[in-house]
Specification:
By secondary structure, this protein is an alpha/beta fold. It contains six helices and seven strands. A five-stranded mixed sheet has the order 2-4-3-6-7, with no helix packed on it. Strands 1-5 form a two-stranded antiparallel ribbon.
């Protein structure tokens, strides 16, 4: 399998993983049995960055099958979802660079770990590496997948709910929605424009299904035209 990130970034990621495994407080939450999945890097000019959460899935035995971020090396539901987003943007999945905020596997999906706030506790460890990893793609916008990513990314007092940026209002079927928004570069720790998207399982929610096409058009109008 070809390497999709630079050797210095990969080396740092592996060093961080080893440090986390040895951490007396946080090491118990790290599943160090597997290598860090490689980012997905399309074969064309990178025009969009997809930021996932972490590679952990509930079934520990199947974690060994995850070699690429979001399993984008395989035909599956997430790849189909992102291919649809790309189509709406007028680009190809081969224009994507996809990586995870948290590179390591955890012993359980982070939202199921109640003793500590995994997202906050591990954010400071992985964020500097992520910023350096993305530096190659100057001015390329980011879409995030899933709501838990937003809290560790946004600055103080900036909303951390996906639906806020999608203009949600109560009784949205009969009321005019609020304007679509992005997270401005100055309002998040990546320092670049971020467009929050729901993770693929949340597409079952009627609101996101109804607004997906329009929000994708909003992204295209603001950064890809």
């Amino acid at each position: 399998m070809p390497k999709m990130w630079s050797a210095p970034i990969e080396d740092r990621a592996n060093q961080i993983l080893e440090q986390l495994k040895q951490d007396r407080r946080l090491g118990r939450y790290v599943d160090g049995s597997f290598q860090i999945p490689q980012p997905f890097r399309g074969t064309r000019d990178i025009r969009l960055i997809v930021l996932g959460q972490d590679p952990t899935i509930k079934d520990a035995e199947k974690r060994q099958d995850i070699k690429t971020v979001l399993n984008l090396d395989k035909n599956g539901s997430v790849r189909a979802y992102l291919a649809g987003v790309c189509k709406g943007l007028g680009i190809s999945i081969e224009n994507l660079y996809a990586t995870n905020f948290y590179k390591n596997f955890f012993v359980s999906p982070p939202t199921q770990i109640e003793e500590v706030d995994i997202f906050q506790e591990f954010a400071g460890t992985w964020l500097p590496l992520l910023i350096d990893e993305l530096a190659e793609f100057a001015r390329v916008p980011v879409i995030t997948l899933g709501e838990p990513l937003l809290a560790p990314l946004v600055e103080n007092d900036i909303p951390a709910q996906v639906r806020y940026y999608w203009g949600y209002v109560p009784e949205w079927k009969t009321r005019r929605h609020n304007p679509f928004q992005s997270i401005r570069a100055e309002d998040n720790k990546l320092g670049r424009v971020v467009f929050p998207f729901p993770h693929q399982p949340s597409l079952r929610k009627e609101f996101y299904k109804a607004k997906m096409k329009d929000y994708v058009a909003f992204v295209k109008k603001n950064v890809l035209t």
